[in-house]
Specification:
Number of domains: 2
Shape: globular
Strand order of the largest sheet: 1-8-9-10-11-12-13-14
CATH topology of the largest domain: Metallo-beta-lactamase, Chain A
Largest sheet: 8 strands, mixed
Strand content: 15-25%
Order of helices and strands: EEEEHEHHEHEEEEEHHEHEHEHEEHEE
Structural class: alpha/beta
CATH architecture of the largest domain: 4-Layer Sandwich
CATH class of the largest domain: Alpha Beta
Helix content: 10-25%
Number of helices: 10
């Protein structure tokens, strides 16, 4: 993962670091939503659950004042519905997604909200986003995944602050995690201090080979009442075999991880019987990291996106594109009116 480059630096120059990093695995029922807030107060919402009203209530409950980026692991409704009010209310600068347009009205509503908010679409690729002092490494879907399978094109996010590491990979299935294992050395993935269970603990999500590389210390299962048997006995057995403590939003509500500078962390639950969290993992010193393409304290000006056609622009939530806007190309402006892909 040392080859990743800095795409955007969401960093407030001169801001002192006083507060901890917080990750909230929000209790959105049968779905995913993770709210990440840096010590500098910069925030990312990774997925939004299946209910607009529920997500809006949770954002108010936790005092969210703004969002710098929203991310959709993939376009399924139980991951993106809550992103609609998040985008509408907070008009984040960026919308990270897998570049494959959903086929539902929910996806179209989200894209329309992003366009109205003038939120710039970012198609996931190997990249690093600096959220203040927090490093977010994007795990793009590996090459060769079938484009008609949203789960197999889930976008992963590795969160690092000091020695702390958290990982979430949407609804990725065995074929995608196998692709990541071929792409990334195992020692660049694990150990992971806090790990979000794949696909709510589905049978076709986590697998032994993947967990051997990830080495999760604590697992959060984001789940609600469902007819799928999530989390499955097979998934829970895998987590036990890995020696991980397991937290569940259906039993304990929102799971909050509070990380101090250096990486020490605590895990608290909204309700239910407390589960003792495994302490931070012991890690060997990482190899020297090459100098990034850009320094980490630049303003948030990402590299200009390139869309091969209007289909890609719409899938990224960037259409319509106006002349002078990043991603606009005259070849896509068929009528020459300065607006492409309208």
């Amino acid at each position: 993962m040392r080859r990743f480059f800095t795409l955007a630096a969401l960093l407030l120059a001169g801001t002192s670091v006083a507060a901890p990093l917080t990750l909230r695995f929000l209790n959105v029922g049968q779905g995913d939503a993770v709210l990440i807030t840096s010590p500098e107060g910069k925030s990312v919402l990774y997925d939004g659950g299946r209910s607009e009203a529920r997500l809006q209530t949770l954002l108010r409950q936790y005092g969210v004042q703004g969002l710098d980026l929203v991310a959709a692991s993939h376009a399924d409704a139980d991951h993106i519905t809550g992103l609609i009010p998040a985008v509408t209310l907070f008009k984040p600068r960026f919308f990270l997604n897998n570049g494959i347009a959903g086929t539902t009205q929910t996806w179209q509503k989200l894209v329309a909200a992003a366009q109205k908010a003038r939120t710039q679409g970012l198609v996931a690729k190997d990249q690093v986003i600096n959220l203040g002092s927090v490093k977010l490494t994007v795990l793009a879907p590996p090459a060769g995944m079938p484009r008609n399978e949203q789960n197999l094109n889930s976008v992963g996010l590795l969160v690092e602050y000091g020695a702390f590491r958290a990982l979430m990979t949407g609804d990725s299935e065995t074929a995608e995690t196998a692709g990541w294992l071929k792409k990334y050395p195992a020692n660049s993935l694990g150990p992971i201090d806090v790990y979000k269970s794949i696909h709510h603990g589905a049978r076709n999500g986590d697998n032994a080979a993947w967990l051997k590389a990830v080495r999760p210390r604590n697992v959060v299962v984001s789940v609600g009442p469902n007819n799928y048997g999530h989390p499955t006995a097979e998934a829970l057995a895998l987590y036990r075999k890995a020696g991980a403590s397991v937290f569940r939003t259906d039993q304990q509500g929102t799971i909050t991880v509070t990380v101090q500078p250096g990486g020490k962390f605590t895990i608290t639950t909204e309700r239910g019987t407390p589960v003792p969290a495994n302490p931070p993992a012991t890690r060997t010193a990482p190899a020297a990291t090459p100098a990034p393409v850009r320094p980490a304290n630049i303003p948030p000006t990402p590299a200009a996106p390139y869309y091969r056609n209007c289909t890609e622009a719409r899938a990224a939530g960037a259409a319509p594109l106006h002349r002078g806007q990043p991603g606009y190309r005259p070849e896509m402006d068929r009528d020459g009116d300065g607006v492409a892909c309208e």
